[in-house]
Amino acid sequence: MKSSRRFPILAAMLMAACLSLNAWAQTPAPATRSAAPAATTAAPTAPAPVGGTSGATAEYRLGSGDAIRISVFQNPDLLLETRVSENGTITFPLLGTVRVGGLAVSEAEGRIAEGLRKGNFVKQPQVTIVVLKVTGNQASVLGQVNRPGRYPLEVADTRLTDLLSTAGGVTEFGGEQLVLTGTRDGKPYRLEVDLPTLFAEGGRAQDVIVQNGDVLWIERYPRFYIYGEVQRPGQMRLERGMTLMQGLAAGGGLTLRGTDRGIRINRKGADGQVQEVKPAMNEVLRDGDVIFVRESLF
Fold it and tell me: How far is CA 58 from CA 46, 62, 92, 162, in A?
């Protein structure tokens, strides 16, 4: 009698389990993961084109030499770690050669997924690409910086100041003029930037986004030379807006035999010829000026 009562209960439990299983089967598959890697393996990002308004939506564009990991959801046999070849291609299982160079990470994911779908290898492929090492997108920093060299562009909106910081900043001999050269839209590109203005109001516009192949050059600081009857003759750093009087002070001032009368400045003109200038004490010095202080006759 007890066993006959259990059958309705067991039947109800079985029916509930079937309904639960059916509801689970109809649940949509997880959405395609974004190209952003896990926290333990941060995906580097490359610079967006100059003029981009924001790096928030910029994606890394794969370059030759980049090391990447490709995985397909629920298909562990398609897991692949490889490098992008010099001609921008990779060899992927079932698909053969796939061109990914120059594509954003999401675009490369879509191209591989499309190949798997069209070949009927995977019905709904969910492809994820993680950039393991950046070597394809780099910029060089030369001149008066603490660590000159070639650096990978690991952030989507790597800007001029970011690259300069990566190189350790400007040395004590560095000037205030930066020169960024490269190519934009297939044409030569050159930008001269006054470093202090980057931190002034509105200076963000000059803090441009760096692109692959760019070269940043930091010139040596401007100088002037002083000799004759001064305490410390020699080469001096030319500060912005420095006058002749300030230049004399930088040289320690005049000696007991020196006079401020008859001071001469040898200055190179626009035509390359050296001219002798009879300056006033408020004369603004220029890069390369040579100051001569005469000896007093009395």
Answer: 8, 13, 26, 16
pLDDT in tens, 112-165: 999 999 999 999 999 999 988 887 788 999 999 999 999 988 766 788 999 999
* Residue 198, in any domain of the structure: yes
Q: Are residues 112 and 156 in the same domain?
A: no
The whole-angstrom separation of Cα 75 and Cα 26 is 20
Q: Which of 202, 158, 155 is nearest to 182 (CA)?
A: 158
The answer to whether residues 105 and 156 belong to one domain is no
Cα Rg of the chain (Å, integer): 33
Closest CA to 251 of 281, 225, 277, 289: 225
Considering the domain architecture, whether residues 204 and 229 belong to the same structural domain is answered as no
Distance CA 183, CA 80 (A): 33
> What's the domain range around 145?
138-220
